Amino acid sequence: MRSELDGLGALNVLFDSTYGSPGKMLNDAHMKLSRGLMKTLEEQGAKLQVDAWAMLNVLWAGDRISQVELSGRLARDRHQVSRLVDTLVRQGFVRREADKNDRRVKYVVLTEWGRAQEDSLKEAVVNFLERTFNGVSQRDYDGFTRCLEHILER
User: Fold this and answer.
1) Could you read off the pLDDT of 43-89 as tens digits, one per residue?
2) Distance CA 34, CA 149 (A)
3) Going by C-beta distance under 8 Å and a sequence separation of 6 or more, which residues neighbour residue 93?
4) Which residues pair with 123 in a beta bridge?
5) pTM (2 d.p.)
6) Helix (H, G, I), strand (E, B) or coil at 78
7) How far is residue 124's CA from residue 43's CA, in Å, rounded to a whole number?
8) Distance (Å, rounded) from C-alpha 66 to C-alpha 142?
């Protein structure tokens, strides 16, 4: 199946925008969403980077996960995951636990305080996203996410 962008006229379509190419627009949108997310979390008292927020969401869905498994779920190398865990430990969200049978294996476990932050932080983020996408129809949003999925699956 051929795309509407096939052919020499594609370049005119791709760059005929106030904001530049689709790649630049995606990058700019990503940066704006990331800054907004971090600001929203900071307003709630949580100074977190986007990757740390992603890690918390994985842990809230299923606590006590090894750092190796977190690395795979977040598509980050073990050094990046270790630094993210260090940050979350310092802020009181998580603690590390050694495996009883294999001391090389470290699990990341939510603290009681970290578990207690889930509802308020998620509510703040949902409100931020609702404000961000206010005025975008469900049909347009669904088309946008389908397009992103298409790009990511290639």
Assistant:
1) 999 999 999 999 999 999 998 999 999 999 999 999 999 999 999 99
2) 19
3) 56, 110, 111, 113, 114, 117
4) none
5) 0.81
6) helix
7) 9
8) 34
